[in-house]
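$ run holo --ligand "heme C" --emit tokens
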Amino acid sequence: MSNLPKPILFALLGTVVVALIPPVLIVRMRTTKHSLPRIHWIQDMDNQGRFRAQHANPMFADGRAMRQPVAGTVARGELRADTHYNHGVVAQAWATTFPRQTRVTPDLLARGQERFVIYCTPCHGASGYGDGLVNQRALAVMGDPTRSKGTSWVEPKSIHDSDILAQPVGQLFNTITNGVRTMGSYESRINVHDRWAIIAYIRELQKREASASADTRGVDRADRKRVGEPDNQNEARQS
Ligand code: HEC
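-- output --
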């Protein structure tokens, strides 16, 4: 090596140093973290001019880049044309029968009971007398002026009241779907099928309680509770 002319020696050394640059860069890129995406050699149509969500677009009269669906658009599976099933309405009146999609079977009743226990018993009680834990607690608070602080409490209705017994199933469906007076809507939490299942179970509860109270005729609801008659809640849980 030492007998090589100096310019050639320097040229060789320079070449080695320059040749080391790419591998050093590659190693560095591979071992460090970057917030930018990797180098994009072939663009295809990946990067194009576009309007981002919530940005303005002067091309449209309303100046918005995001477009509204055309009026009357119905999303797939969202056409609720069957008013009986979806709204409990037949020929502009509350449906008096279950829709054809809902066959009242033991399975449906079991589902209805399960949903009723989850969503309705806290207020209406396991047997539907309106004596759920939320109501008991509210009444206890209301009875104590230092805790009630001027609020009011509307008691959940008993599903065995004569006016509720007389209601067609479609009206019960509407109550669950849209709520009623101080009771809120359960539309977002209970799907249509489960609402019908709950109603089937309510009808069952009503029938059961009607035949039970035929045995204890003359003892009204308040008396039954006062004398500590078979606890309604346990009755429903056992069945
Ligand atoms: C948070 C408490 C609460 C829950 C939970 C609740 N309700 Fe109610 N419900 C009420 C109250 C309160 C009323 C009485 C509303 C009024 O008179 O202002 C009522 C009234 C009703 C009525 C009578 C409607 C009428 O036409 O008078 C029915 C039927 C009913 N509820 C069914 C249900 C069903 C079914 C569920 C379960 C899906 C349920 N409720 C869940 C509080 C509740």
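-- notes --
Residues 119-120, 122-124, 134, 154, 156-157, 159, 164, 172, 175-176, 180-183, 186, 190, 198 surround heme C (CB under 6 Å).
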